[in-house]
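Title: Prediction job returns without error message
Component: structure pipeline
Severity: low
Priority: P3
Assignee: unassigned

Description:
Job completed but the reporter wants confirmation the result is attached to the right record. Sequence as submitted:
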Amino acid sequence: MISIGIIGAGIVGERIIKQIQQESQVEIKTVYDQQTERLTEISEAYGIPMAKSVEEVLHSDINWVYIATPPAFHAEIAELAASAGINILCEKPLAHNVEDGESMAASVQDNRVQTAMHFPLMYKPAVREMAQRIKSGHIGKVVRIELQTFFPDWPRLWQQNPWIGSRSQGGFIREVFPHYFQLMNRLFGELVFTSHHTSYPEDAEKCETGLIAHGLTDKHIPFLVTGISGIGQKELLQFKVYGEQGVLTLENWSDLYESVKGEDRKLINDFEDVPSLFEEMNNSSTLLVNFEEGLVIQRYIDHLLTE
């Protein structure tokens, strides 16, 4: 049984609360947020006791803590939790930067606590099906990988907060790309970026508006990563794996399509059930993305944000 405390009651924190309340083997013991008004709103809406501080959360009767704060606060909270012997579920990206991520990874190793990153793609049936088809050779030899993302607005209209559009902590490279980099890393091994260009607005406080990057996997499969915001179209996220016998496209997180020569692409919708993130946590599954793996992804992010 997982007893969890939540630190950070923003949009993502609220989503996790809703998810947890559908789980039979997880109990939320307490929630904390620096913004008292928001904390009170969440506590009353979901019937969760409020804590007055991070320390109060960590001294409550919990065996896991979920860190859902902006990235700049992840390291400090994670190190406090590790010192208290509490297992840690952390929102992506792992940290504000690689230096903080290395500190977090060292702290949890020293204190021998379990860790997991919140990468929901890992627990989507469509993604598991995509991975199985790639690894089984269903689409033949993989010859190219592409991630292309298009955002009419950043921050998105539902995602407005003080930091999500900032250069210091926000942007789609930090907020969206880690999900796909983690998946690429699991499917194809280490990614090596051979070139990239990141575009920024004149306002030094605002996050990136564009990215084009090329690279190779450790098996020398070429990949292309692009992102652009402030454009005249609907949001679209496409992760494509090109094989000699077929092409798989994961579109907008959970729609999986397969293409073969001479035919229109077909939507795949017959999936096996997969365990949830919290079921995997309860079972200490090896499929969990730990802080060491999160640090690998953090290095990719930091590299792409280099001007």
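Comment from assignee: result matches the submitted record. The chain is about 30% helix and 25% strand.
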